Fold:
Amino acid sequence: MTDLRDRPITPVSLPEPTLTKPSLLHTEIMSLNVGPQHPSTHGVLRLVVDMDGEYVVKVVPHMGYLHTGFEKTFEARTYQQGVTYAPRTDYLHSFSHELAYVLSVEKLLSADLPERATTIRVILHELGRIHSHLVFFGTALMDLGAITLFFYCFREKEEVQNLFEDICGYRMNQGYFRVGGLSKDAPEGWAARVQKFVDTFDKHVDEYATMFQKNPIFLDRATGVGVISSELALDLGLTGPNLRASGVPLDQRKATPYCGYETYDFDVPTSTDGDSLARFNVRLQEFRESAKIIRQALARLKPGPVKDPNRKISLPPREELETSMEAVIHHFKLVTEGFHPPVGEVYVPTESARGEVGYYIVSDGGSMPYRVKIRAPSFVNLQALEYACVGGQFADLITVLATVDPVLGDVDR
Amino acid sequence: MALKELFERDWQELESGGVLFSSLEKLVAWGRSNSLWPATFGLACCAIEMMGSTDGRNDLARFGSEVFRASPRQADVMIVAGRLSKKMAPVMRRVYDQMPDPKWVISMGACASSGGMFNNYAVVQNVDSVVPVDIFVPGCPPRPEALIYAVMQLQKKVRGEAFDNYGTQLPMVDAWTR
Amino acid sequence: MTTTLDPRRDPLTPQFADWLAELGVQPDDSAEPTALVPAGDLLRVAALLKADGFMLLDSVGLDYSQYTEKKPARFCVLHNVFHPHDHRRLFLRVYVPDSVDGSGGELPTLYPVWKSANYLEREVYDLMGVVFSGHPDLRKVLTPDDLEGHPLRKDFPVGETPTLFRDGRFLDPATFRAGMNGQSAGLSGYKGGQRRGEMNEPLPPVMPEGGPK
Structure:
């Protein structure tokens, strides 16, 4: 048996990048290593940049410095335990991965979800999007040298994290969804606190906009930098705000609705410019759309159960354990072994703050998944870097990297 | 000659008794403990809470540790925030080696301290096997308050006010030999 | 946005079958809209889909060596293609022809059709060991360079190792799992019963003078 890595692979170089701006120096091509520990790479990304003077000729990202083996670990855990792992991939919008995983398993089981659980999921999904974009604005503008917005964004981020903590006891990496519902109901007064946050949030969004939208230094650094045309974006498989900033109004909440998103009234902000400024603006408008969805979801939040009544999937309530032998047996089976979904393969696409997230789950009928493949949007989006930076200056590379907004946990998994 | 011998003996007595330098060492340690500059070594989820600890609400600056240095050569303490993959471990060791002495390490979060929930082929099971760790912070991720408490504990250690499990006082870092 | 859904989104409709017949491929028996594409036919189908406006979103590598059902080949690659305007999704299921020595197999690359295949195929190559012939830059992407083997194959162990702590305690993976699923007896290396508070820990035992009494 020969080792695959010894097999000779004929190297074919990528299409030669062309410099759109004239090179002033005509010096030798110099390679510059950025990362993996670097202040302006979001996480442990390593870039090898070939430069002609100040101009970027070629960018080669090296990933894998945060490779955690999620997909292998899923195969050794039961379905319900997998909920704990899913949010750790994209830790900024952790509810997106949690939701995608849970929806896939529920599709496998044909679970019947109560209305209240779905509505709370929508609220948390959108709050997570707000959380992710807040961190995006804070850190991306810090990369461009504007530190002030970081403190404003993190002020609201703490508010959002308080809401997360109130409902599931933890600020990040919640693990709150369960296959067949939620782990527990929202506490009393939580909806009112969310309402209070959302009501004041639009004012804060205006505040963020005033801080950078008319700043000439920011506009100089973002306008026309890192243009990704819509053809290139589709060819590269971009999704999420990066694709919408290039003019393709693709949003999985509209395209393949899940969690009843087709019943909510919201817009998909797009821009046709495709540059870094467009990516900032699209995300800024998404703040308002998310707040709009949360307001509608809060209005239709009615008291009710939050778990699938099917005892084969969800744990029986605590008080039933003392009176019903059947409940004890179900509890024991679920805790020790978990449920056994039917044989099959499922995929449910969802829209995270970075693009399409989906879990391709293969079940062989056992209590653990046979194979879980995470469709990670950041990993695919990162390919845009190789194309969008070429011809620009090195400082533009930082802008493009910040606006493509990869989360390295999502890239490397 | 007798005077010189006497002087040397006095010097040795003073030094062994810790009279001459102890006050100065305490002053240096006090200064060091209140300006522990961390190197940015955010790896995963914990890095977000590490950033959160410097924001307006938690304000790590109260303890003199808000100046996150991009270059390890300007940092005193490395906060290993997140799961350390086996591909990243040599890089981390190199960053640690570049830091000037005296230096300290905080292992932030369950993944850095013990591998956490990721017991597989890809994750280093304990950062302590790569670099010597002074403070372990539990949590997944720890709250900013937990990180601030860890920095406070580290300050105690730097000032020589820390004790181990058996009640023995841990020595202060010698200011002069390094 | 249009609200009328394209009937070809649903694999149960006759329109879906017609569409696959147009493409010249067989439908696969799966809950998701899946087409069974022979390896030699992949580039032709991909070019047709690309001309139709599809984008490549994901490539999934599968190892069926321990699966309950018998599959035509050990390795299989699923290309997840999606139409950004009428929102059709199709999974192209390609069984990798078994190589003679059983070390994986070879598929034609989709890079000439979709540029997004660049990283996606590198990932499948890295984690599953399927070689894509003609790929411009086929090398490891996620795992370290010194890692032997391909982690997502079923014969690759999860690689659990005990976590050693300084004071001699260790967290044993078997114990860790026994607590979770109750399928094996706990071989506890963590002396749970003898655990005391931090400050009350006795000094380590010392051998008395002259040996044990």
Remarks:
- Chain B touches chain C through 16 residues (CB under 8 Å).
